[in-house]
Amino acid sequence: MFPVQLWLYWFPMSNQKGSVSYGEKVFTVEPFSTEHIPLAERHGQARHLFPLWLGANLTIADYALGFLPVALGLPWWLTILAILAGNLAGGLVLGLAAAMGPGAGYPQLILGRRAFGRLGGYLPAALNWISTVGWFTVNNILGAFGLQILFPGLSFAAAALILVVVQVLLAVYGHNLIHAYERIMSVVLGALFLIASVIALTKGQQIASYVPHTTGMLPLFAVVLAGVFSYIASWAPYASDYSRYMPPSTPVWPSVGWTWLGSALASAWLELLGAAVAVLAGVQGKDPIAALRIVMGWFGLPAVVAVILGGTAADALNLYSNSLSARALDVKLPRWLLAILAGAVGLAGSLYGGGHFGHFYESFLLLLGYWVTPWLGVLCVDYYLTGKRNEDMNRLPGTINGRGLGAYLAGILVSVPFMSGPLFTGPFAARMGGADFSFYIGFLAAGLLYLLFSRSAKTS
Question: Which of 50, 36, 39 is nearest to 16 (CA)?
Answer without folding.
Answer: 39
